[in-house]
Amino acid sequence: MARIEINHLTKNFGGLTALDEVDLSLEKGQIVGLLGPNGSGKTTLIKILNGLLTPTSGSAEINGMKPGVGTKKIVAYLPDRNALPDYMTSDQLIGLYKDFFEDFDSDKAGAMIDDLGIDRKQTLKKMSKGTKEKLQLCLVMARTAEVYLLDEPIGGVDPATRDYILRTIISNYNEDAVVVISTHLISDIESVLDDVVFIKNGRVVLHDKADHIREEKGESVDQLFREVFKC
Amino acid sequence: MLGKLLKYEIPELGRKLAPLYIGWAATAVLLGLAVGPAASKSDFMVVLSGMLYSAAATAVVVMTVITIIQRYSNSLLGDDAYFNQVLPVTASEHIASKGLSAMIWVIVSGAVMCLTGLLIAIFSGSMAEFLRVMPDIWRDIIMKIKGEEWLILLEILIMMVFSLTKSVLAIYAAITIGHQAQKRTTLASIGAYIGVLFFETFVGRTGMSIFPNFFRNFDIYDMHKFFGGGMLITAALCAIYFLICKYLMEKRLNLA
What is the model's pTM? Predict the structure, then answer.
């Protein structure tokens, strides 16, 4: 059974179609790049998988389950915004995650936070945008989840932090999991991707192995992206 | 999981309301000192401290309601929902945790009101008099209330808890319905709340038309019927509002 199975998934917002008959099947043990320009439907797809949006039609399943309590136990989600309580410190947030997620490793989270030099006693409110993003990622990646859904994890951070984030993703995910990274910053993440999904105007226009793209087409994923999404 | 949600929910509301309680208590002390025997009996000071006390009381009432509304709206349907709605927790547990903590803080606000009364009595120097007359008043109450009247008092107390629950859940239902409109959700929630009030009026009138002779003698028996019927209707309304929130959160959630 595929970790993520999406069939004829459509999502309309009033007259706007954000996802249009999307079919996608993602297996475990790979890092998948969900790539597309702004407004292509990447975030909508990830929000539906997290149960934050209700599909107009079609289905999205994780381990054969519709989004719900069962899937939330095994999905680690990094949203495209800060959603953590901003009055809490890093230590308190570790406690919060520990309370709700059985697969959360407090020691691992603490080690990552220390590694990044984040003050554990400082509240989220007083942290910079980049530090907040790093902290959120540490908390998410400290889970031994079966599915990681990372929405724009490298969007608003400096290149050095991007490298750290990508290293964190590669070194912390397990072979039984699938990691989905949504972004439009292809060149930064290309090296870590196993699978590539191009999404354009709410439709999946390409789903292939990153290596296959490079061998078959003789160009990088970034170059192909620029061709496909040429304005 | 409900216990874990409450562990974070109750202090979060308290964190916002505690400063207001402290401010309210301070104005009560000021008012007590202004009307006490040691004061200069300046009318200006009495009026000013009285106004401050009233303003603080109003602020606590208004802020309690606003905080309860904001907490539900932001944490389950706003930006904070991107964390809260991905916790492995059922919609029922989310709604129950918000409702229970809201009720607890409404009751605490009531308790703080009593405390401010006590502070006024202490700092105005009338505590000794208060302590002297209280046992007599209490004894009178005990003597005058007999047998079944205690049951009526208990029914009133239960009815108050039911009504409080119903009021909180009615607000939550209106907010959740309002969020179905993707734009102008605040306006839509206010509209939904007006709809909820119309619905409650309709239910009340229908109930009275079904039982036109509900009150015949207005005796103890009628009182039991009144509170018993009221509790049933209020409990039914609580269930309806709870189910509306649960259904929309489980089947129609669409975070902006």
Answer: 0.90
